[in-house]
Amino acid sequence: MTLRSSWASPSSVSSGLESCVFKSCVSAKQIVCAANTENAAHFFVATYRHYDLYEHMESGARKVKQDDSKPPRTLRVAVVEDDKVVRTFIERLLGKPEHNCQFVGAWADAESALRELPEFEPDVVVVDLELPLMSGAELIAVLSRKMISAAFVVLTVHDDPAKVFAALRAGAHGYLLKGSKPEDIVGGIRSASEGGAPLSQEIARLLIQSFQEPPKTEKAPIPGLTPRETQILERLAQGMVPKEVAFELSLSYETVRDYLKGVYQKLHVRSRTEAVIKFLQHNNNEGWAT
């Protein structure tokens, strides 16, 4: 900043400086170094007068900002998990005051959750995938149509692509692994309630890789199998169980079982494992097992 020599009097120096300091926020030391000795005291007075005013205004702004900040709203969270240890852990985790969550209840199976959970109107439902009868993905598919305003977050040990995509297609808003840090689980639950899509790092990486992989070449069909039988066998080879295959292909569980019986007869095997092995051998061009 350049000071004009035309400032003749201390009062004019002080007046001009007051405006300049307030706008440019230069330090008192810079001003004094640039001024002559006669007007130094006036520079100090002007500088610190506006510095005090600036600090007063800043502190007031900070105070208003602090007063306007509100704590996050209390989240109502429900859990569907068949493992009692995990249910207790989540209840205690969400019960901590700093997390600002209300634990509305826990269900050990999908069937009871379907009957009772909607009337509790939770903001977020945390769901395990491996439930006794109906799977977690199936539960999410049904509940998400009944509870439009709720967010569904999967909390599971499974990180294989088939289960991840099945859960997301069913309507899950987030997918977290049980090995996640407690703060990441709580943060993911809140993020889902605010419209986010929380994913564990491993799951996010898996999704990215799925888009980066080159398209797979079509495999020659297995002799004797229908396209539907091949579809079922492909999903079994990906790690799905028959219930999950039925859900993904929009078939009943009994229909999938009937298809599998036909597959066993055509491939001359007696179990799902043997059928999958033959399927993998065919795709790897190893020929049929004898």
Structural commentary:
The protein is of the alpha/beta class. The chain has 13 helices and 5 strands. It has helices at residues 10-24, 28-34, 40-68, 84-94, 110-116, 136-146, 161-170, 182-193, 201-212, 227-237, 242-248, 253-267, 272-283; strands at 75-80, 101-107, 124-127, 151-156, 174-177. It has a 5-stranded parallel beta sheet with strand order 2-1-3-4-5, with helices on both faces. Helix 10 (227-237) packs across helix 13 (272-283). Mean pLDDT is 78; it is low at 1-58, 61-67 and 286-290.
Question: Features of this protein?
Answer:
five-stranded parallel sheet, alpha/beta, 290 residues, disordered N terminus, disordered C terminus
Range of strand content: 5-15%
Q: How far apart lie the N and C ends?
A: 91 Å
What is the structural class?
alpha/beta
Report the sheet with the most strands, covering strand number, pairing sense and barrel closure. 5 strands, parallel
Total of DSSP H or I helical runs spanning 4+ residues: 13
**Uncertain segments:** 1-58, 61-67, 286-290
Spatial arrangement of strands, main beta sheet: 2-1-3-4-5
Order of helices and strands: HHHEHEHEHEHEHHHHHH
According to DSSP, the number of beta strands is: 5
Q: Determine Rg (CA atoms, Å).
A: 33 Å
Overall geometry comes to: elongated
- Determine the fraction of residues in helical runs and give it as a percent range: 40-55%
**Average pLDDT score:** 78
